[in-house]
Amino acid sequence: MAGRGNFSSKIGFIAAAAGSAVGLGNIWKFPFEVGQGGGAAFVLVYLAFAFILCFPVMVTEIAIGRRTQKNPVGAFSDLGFRNWRWLGIMGVLAGFLILSFYNVVAGWAFGYFIEMVTGHFEIGQHFGEFTKNFVKVGGYGLIFMAATAFIVSRGISAGIEKASKILMPSLVIMMLGLVIYSFTLPNAGKGIEFYLLPDFSKITLPVVYRALGQAFFSLSLGMGALITYGSYVGKNDNIVSSAAIITLADVGIAFLAGLMMFPFVFSQNLPPTGGPGLIFVTLPGIFQSLGPVLGIVIGSVFFLLLSFAALTSTVSLLEVPVAYVVDEHKIPRKISVWVIAALIFIIGIPSLLSNGASDLFSSFITYPGAESATDFMTFIGHVANDTFLPLGGALIVIFAAYVWKKHNLNNELEQGFAGFKGSFVEKFIDLSISYIAPVVLLSIFILNVLDRFFGVQVF
Ligand code: TRP
């Protein structure tokens, strides 16, 4: 496993992969996507995608990783299909793009923590003022990227692993507390209704492709992160049950975040369509209502835990390009890490400027037929999350089912899961990766590109 992070074998893989999956995607992005996607209808589509399409993709990625012990580019060559390397390269590029904006938001969360503990936090206009301040968000982003690079350069240390075993459950417990509190607030019922009572007329094409992009993003799929992490899985471990645990944990935490957020949003009479600022506006308002001392204590602990959840995700995003250049180009790990992290930080500068600091990047592009402009950071998210990831996922399952072939995949899955072959689970995974996932993922990919980027309405 030279060149990769080292996890102690026991918790190893599940801790790493769940740490990768659970992050800003669950707590920051999921609620705002639900808010913009019309509420419960979005949640329903998201859940269906997570279990029917994403779970089988996850199993496939992990199996390829364990089989080859390689980064995504090397993995396809290693199985004997050199032409499929470009699929791995696409994954590496998607990782670059995703980390470039993800780190910006991680910097916001970290910045909120620092400003709260140092007494610089003012509620109200804070979010807009904060993101407009390039020096501040740039500084926090730089610190966050450096922390990520530091961890990846040392290999993923036992310290982080231990810390995440305490901090992740703490985050969940804290969210449970906040969910209970949120239910006691005025108008909580309206929030719960918005979140849980689907209005089926809201299921439009954009809701469908955004829900799909969100499911891939949240589960860290479609770019080979789990191929890379799959090499940590022991030959005696059960890939299918590990993937099921990771999927359930990730979806469960996202679900909890929504349950906490919408009562908060409606109790403050805020619009649920607040977008990327949603948690950064809604939560401080709630923390403030807890009183000046308790509010700051709870608020700073929350943003610290959120920063930590983001860190275990940024680490996995950086690990993919690093594993690639270390394995395939034999560049020393330390050099690779710092050079790649610096490059990604630079690519992320327009995203740092996208929320008020620069007019150009804050209103970067107007899609055909759209009423208003989209900022650069959101645009990159649309390209990477909603477009590249489902395409990557489609190609990965097509590769496994038709190129590498199912009996090879099934042999890998049978290891650590005696009786997999012939079981119901095998039939379900087979059905999904051979037919449902390729057709659905490719169709939604095409419709997304036509609709969003070219303004062509097929439906
Ligand atoms: N899943 C993470 C989150 O929800 C983000 C992430 C980490 C990711 N690694 C990834 C997304 C790989 C796509 C691919 O916060």
Summed up:
With 459 residues, the chain is mostly helical.
Give an account of the 3D structure.
The radius of gyration is 21 Å and the shape is globular. The longest helix has 39 residues, at 376-414. It has 19 helices and no strands. The chain has helices at 12-21, 24-36, 40-68, 72-78, 85-117, 126-132, 134-153, 158-183, 188-196, 205-218, 225-230, 239-267, 278-289, 292-329, 333-347, 349-352, 359-362, 376-414, 424-454. It is mainly α and 459 residues long. The protein has a single domain (10-454), classed as Hydantoin permease (Orthogonal Bundle), CATH 1.10.4160. The mean pLDDT is 93. Residues 20-21, 23-26, 98, 217-218, 220, 223, 225, 313, 316-317 line the site of tryptophan. Tryptophan (TRP) is lined by residues 20-21, 23-26, 98, 217-218, 220, 223, 225, 313, 316-317.
Write out key terms for the chains shown.
single chain, 459 residues, mainly alpha, Hydantoin permease, 75% helix, globular, binds tryptophan
What CATH calls the topology is Hydantoin permease
Rg from Cα: 21 Å
Q: Assign an overall shape.
A: globular
Task: Note the main sheet.
Answer: none
Structural class: mainly alpha
Please report the distance between the alpha carbons of the first and last residues. 48 Å
Give the low-confidence spans.
none
Bound ligands, each once: tryptophan
Q: How many beta-strand runs?
A: 0
The top level CATH class name: Mainly Alpha
Please give the share of residues in helix. over 70%
* CATH-level-4 superfamily name: Hydantoin permease
DSSP summary: helix tally: 19
Mean pLDDT: 93
Q: How many separate structural domains?
A: 1
Can you name the CATH architecture? Orthogonal Bundle
Which percent range describes the beta-strand content? under 5%
Q: What are the secondary-structure elements, in order, as H or E?
A: HHHHHHHHHHHHHHHHHHH
